[in-house]
């Protein structure tokens, strides 16, 4: 039986239908009613990377919009537009299509290696991953409090290992500050091209960011009082990444209002190098009882 990491790598192995046209699949035997946003982000980046010289150009930024929920029961078609191949920068636009309609679009920019000035913010001082409980172990301890319909998915093995610094109660969270920290990585060592590590980190970057805006209000999608969905996603890559090593993902939510929350994240290596920055706006709509 294949492990979750192998399954994830298969999701990244898009089928080429034409020069700039690709087909991606969704995981089998999952109960999700819509495609996980990180999957569409990562597959779109794989499609874009397939049209770029990966020996000389590396992804430095991407900006994306979620337009319609993805249908996990059918493949996703990715159409790449080769917007520009310049002397220093390469630009691509990717449109994801299902049922003849756009569900997602992404713009990505790739840059050749150049030298310049450097500075960065320091990594927060938090416990190391070895000092923290694995998320699955934590979930097993509290599974009796999880609604029955969520329990199977709640405990399934994941391709990305996560260790939260200060996990909240998933059903009735207390109001707290909007800063959260977690360590994450691909769950086992992988022997893949460096560019694929960018795609895998982009996949994982959508896993906890949306919930950051909920923290100050003590709300959870499990309680039936909140409708949430990712609306857009932006990511900047500052350095090469080896995502089967531990990385610290530090997130905060500077603003929420108008049924939306704005969330951002910084990703550091264990030794404190800032390798990626993330920003996302998400739907944060109160569910009102029907009259």
Strand-helix topology:
Elements: H1 4-12, E1 15-18, E2 21-24, H2 37-49, E3 58-66, E4 76-85, E5 89-98, E6 101-111, H3 135-142, H4 151-155, E7 160-164, E8 180-186, H5 194-205, E9 226-230, E10 232-237, E11 247-257, E12 260-269, E13 274-286
Antiparallel strand pairs: 1-2, 2-4, 3-6, 3-10, 4-5, 5-6, 7-8, 8-11, 9-13, 10-13, 11-12, 12-13
Helix pairs in contact: 2-5
* Gross CATH architecture: Beta Barrel
Mean pLDDT score, rounded?
Answer: 93
State the low-pLDDT regions, or none: none
Structural class determined from secondary elements = alpha+beta
Helix content: 10-25%
CATH superfamily name? Answer: Acyl-CoA thioesterase, double hotdog domain
Highest CATH level, the class: Mainly Beta
Looking at the structure, what is the overall shape? globular
Largest sheet: 13 strands, antiparallel
Q: How much strand content do the residues show?
A: 35-45%
In DSSP terms, counting alpha (H) and pi (I) runs of 4 or more, how many helices? 5
Instruction: Please state the CA-atom Rg, rounded to the nearest Å.
Output: 19 Å
What is the CATH topology classification name? Porin
Helix and strand run: HEEHEEEEHHEEHEEEEE
How widely separated are the two ends?
A: 49 Å
Q: How many β-strand stretches?
A: 13
Integer count of domains: 1
């Amino acid at each position: 039986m294949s492990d979750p990491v192998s399954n994830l790598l298969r999701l990244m192995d898009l089928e080429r239908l034409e020069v700039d046209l690709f087909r991606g699949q969704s995981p089998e035997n999952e109960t999700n009613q819509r495609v996980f946003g990180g999957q569409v982000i990562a597959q779109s980046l794989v499609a874009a990377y397939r049209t770029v010289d990966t020996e000389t150009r590396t992804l430095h930024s991407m900006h994306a919009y979620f337009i319609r929920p993805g249908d996990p029961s059918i493949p996703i078609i990715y159409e790449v537009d080769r917007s520009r191949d310049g002397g220093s920068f390469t630009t691509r636009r990717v449109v994801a299509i299902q049922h003849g309609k756009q569900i997602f679009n992404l713009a990505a920019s790739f840059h050749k290696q150049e030298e310049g000035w450097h500075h960065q913010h320091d990594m927060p001082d938090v416990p190391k991953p070895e000092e923290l409980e694995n998320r699955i172990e934590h979930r097993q301890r509290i599974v009796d409090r999880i609604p029955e319909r969520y329990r199977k998915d709640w405990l399934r093995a994941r391709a990305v290992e996560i260790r939260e610094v200060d996990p909240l109660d998933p059903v009735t969270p207390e109001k707290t500050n909007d800063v959260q920290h977690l360590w994450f990585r691909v769950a086992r060592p992988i022997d893949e091209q460096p560019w694929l590590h960018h795609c895998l980190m982009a996949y994982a970057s959508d896993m906890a960011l949306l919930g950051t805006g909920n923290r100050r209000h003590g709300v959870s999608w499990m309680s039936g009082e909140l409708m949430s969905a990712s609306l857009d996603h932006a990511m900047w890559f500052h350095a090469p990444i080896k995502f089967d090593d531990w990385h610290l993902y530090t997130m905060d939510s500077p603003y929420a209002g108008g049924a939306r929350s704005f969330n951002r994240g910084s990703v550091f290596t264990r030794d404190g190098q800032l390798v990626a920055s993330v920003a996302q706006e998400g739907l944060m709509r109160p569910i009102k009882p029907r009259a």
